[in-house]
């Protein structure tokens, strides 16, 4: 039977996701969570101290004998096992990070503790896609494809058409074979190994010139690549466009609904989030295979969450830097 701290740590083994705000490095998010988990594990009640038998002087003077003191047997705690002597039971907890987000991006960031790192690697081998919400603006091009970069061109803007992509040509499976049909029916057809970034879906969900919002589904992407897509889209439309914000709304089975915000990065909340993920995974296993086209937020929910993110952004950055 392990100690309360060990039992608490085993409850924290698994996958969970948090909401990374814009303007904060993912390493700061990970370090903050590692510190909070370590505090939570070591804050569990300590195991009772073991006792040992020692012979102590008798407090009763009547028991004194010639040539020495009378001794009595007593059970006393072993102070060398006290937490103030040995220190915390856990000195370090390693938190693994899934698909990372750069400093300027926000959204779902998947993390793992203990054997959850192996589960995370197995999850990403299934070629799960990710969803992003891109806040864009026509009429400007910058050197680094962001709205804060050096402006290199200003133009007029035009309407935005919809586009779509396909990942079939990056798969090692013959498209005319029965294997390709069966994999496509199960939603498992994807690129073989590490491929170039692939857009599996791209649509405009909000358009109010010169601002517009894109919803993107992709594989093997980086946030810089997504910003470049917006830039190239503007050029194709004989105009210019810049990406003002990148927000990940889904990473595999994890969505914004599952992401823990800054004030919930505690051991208790993380353990509860892991338990809910395991329960959901078992429920899906009983109900049959579910593709990675997970539940995504509606455009209205995405815009509302984006506004809330901007309202709380400065406070969150200050709290993380001071913690």
UniProtKB/TrEMBL annotation:
Give the protein name, as stated in the record: TruB pseudouridine (psi) synthase family member 2
- PANTHER family found in the cross-reference section: PSEUDOURIDINE SYNTHASE-RELATED, PSEUDOURIDYLATE SYNTHASE TRUB2, MITOCHONDRIAL
Start and end residues of each Pseudouridine synthase II N-terminal domain: 91-223
| GO process terms (BP) | pseudouridine synthesis; RNA processing
Q: Which InterPro entries match?
A: PsdUridine_synth_cat_dom_sf, PsdUridine_synth_N, Trub2
Task: Name the protein family.
Answer: Belongs to the pseudouridine synthase TruB family.
Q: May I ask which residue range the UniProt record assigns to the signal sequence?
A: none
Q: What are the GO MF terms of this UniProt record?
A: pseudouridine synthase activity; RNA binding
Disordered: region residues = 300-323
